[in-house]
Design brief:
Layout (H helix, E strand, L loop, with lengths): L1 E6 L9 H4 L6 E2 L2 E2 H11 L5 E5 L4 H9 L6 E5 L6 H7 L1 H4 L4 E5 L2 E3 L4 H9 L4 E9 L7 E6 L2 E7 L8 E9 L2 H7 L11 H10 L3 E6 L4 E3 L3 H12 L5 E2 L2 E3 L2 E3 L2 E3 L4 E3 L2 E3 L2 E3 L4 E3 L2 E2 L3 E3 L4 E3 L2 E3 L2 E2 L4 E3 L5 E2 L2 E2 L4 E3 L22
Parallel strand pairs: 1-4, 1-6, 4-5, 8-12, 14-17, 15-18, 16-19, 17-20, 18-21, 19-22, 20-23, 21-24, 22-25, 23-26, 24-27, 25-28, 26-29, 27-30
Antiparallel strand pairs: 2-3, 6-11, 7-13, 8-11, 9-10, 9-11
Helix pairs in contact: 7-8
This protein binds 1-O-phosphono-alpha-D-glucopyranose.
Length: 354
């Protein structure tokens, strides 16, 4: 079985972060989101991994994958962003006639994808697809499944009035039968070739499509709130470890201080991650916070936040909370008058001053 990760999307709901880099390379709990996908596929015993990129996302995704030594990954180019089924079509040559797991590169799964792969392998012969399903409170932003005795009888993409609360999570096991259905697709109302429509075509043609409820949490990291929540969920699984330097500080609970990081005169309440070569000085870092590599937090308080690589937070009087501070970004105070906010904010940024 092969694994196909999709990483060609624009991530418009995560702007401004995605103005400069694609969603799958954003770090959550210290690791780019796409690396969790690669690791989950490897853990499921899938070693032939392809990643679909766009002309826009290719360089960043390649850089992240190159710096990860765990797997050989084939990059596949999707020239235009025309939907998930279109991305699978772009990978048709690489996939050949192999069954495959389609893995949306912005989705995170607590328990990985081994269960879904196994369900497909033990399913009745002739099973065309197995979809991962999760009961959610509001399924309107997802694909939604109607089931009968383990079979999916109908699929709808983002229905206004969902008939069930069963959301389609972003990992699918497919037999090569899916390719024929993709060939016959028409674009949807939003102008995309939808994988949901291709699966519905399988059902309409009488093929067996199964749904499997997945265990553990699942997160589609579409919006800023989702990134923070994913960071929280992933940090909750940390094991305390100090590889860096800690001086005159208090570390409580599950705190990781990576190699080259320096923590001085600070209090850190876990779960929290202080990444390699960062500096935390005279600061408070509260629970569910990731401080990125080479970032600096001085004379400030921060909790439930993500601070990206090389960002800097300096002498901020009010506690920062629910913040995502991007790569190389800086937040600081400037002494003296006038007491005013001085902001240089990129397009579509969000600042809430309380
Ligand atoms: C896609 C699929 C949708 C699925 C979701 C899971 O939507 O079209 O059926 O429920 O992924 O993350 P998107 O998030 O690309 O709009």
């Amino acid at each position: 079985m092969k694994g196909l990760i999709l990483a060609a999307g624009r991530g418009t709901r995560l702007r401004p972060l995605t103005h400069t880099r694609p969603k799958p390379v954003i770090r959550v709990a210290g690791k780019p989101i796409i690396i969790y996908a690669v690791e989950n596929l490897l853990a499921a015993g899938i070693e032939q991994i392809g990643v679909v990129v766009s002309p826009d996302t290719r360089a960043d995704v390649k850089a992240v994958l190159d710096s990860y030594n765990g797997a050989e990954v084939a990059l596949i180019l999707q020239e235009q962003p025309r939907g998930l089924a279109h991305a699978v079509r772009a990978a048709r040559g690489w996939l050949g006639d192999s069954p495959f797991l389609l893995y949306l590169g912005d989705n995170l799964f607590e328990k990985g994808v081994t269960g879904l792969k196994e369900s497909f392998e033990v399913a009745e012969q002739g099973t065309a697809a197995v979809l991962a399903l999760v009961g959610v409170e509001d399924p309107r932003q997802f694909g939604v499944a109607l089931m009968h005795e383990g079979r999916i009888t109908r699929l709808m993409e983002k229905p206004k009035e969902p008939p069930t609360n069963l959301a389609v999570a972003g990992v699918y096991a497919f037999s090569p039968l899916i390719h024929g259905m993709i060939e016959g697709l028409e674009p949807s109302l939003r102008g995309e070739y939808e994988i949901t429509d291709a699966v519905q075509a399988l059902i309409d043609a009488g093929y067996l499509v199964l749904g499997r409820h997945i265990e553990g949490w699942w997160k589609d990291t579409g919006r800023a709130e989702d990134l923070l929540d994913a960071n929280r969920l992933l940090l909750a699984g940390l094991q305390a470890r100090v590889d860096g330097e800690v001086r005159d500080s208090r570390l409580v609970g599950r705190v990781v201080v990576e190699r080259g990081a320096r923590v001085r005169g600070s209090t850190i309440l876990g779960p929290a991650l202080i990444a390699a070569d960062s500096l935390v000085e005279n600061a408070f870092v509260g629970p569910f916070t990731s401080i990125g590599p080479e970032a600096r937090v001085r004379a400030s308080e921060i909790e439930y936040s993500i601070v990206a690589d090389r960002a800097s937070i300096e002498s901020v009087a009010t506690r920062l909370q629910e913040c995502i501070i991007g790569v190389n970004a800086s937040v600081s105070s400037r002494p003296g008058l006038p007491k005013a906010h001085r902001l240089v904010i990129g397009d579509e940024s969000r600042v809430e001053i309380g």
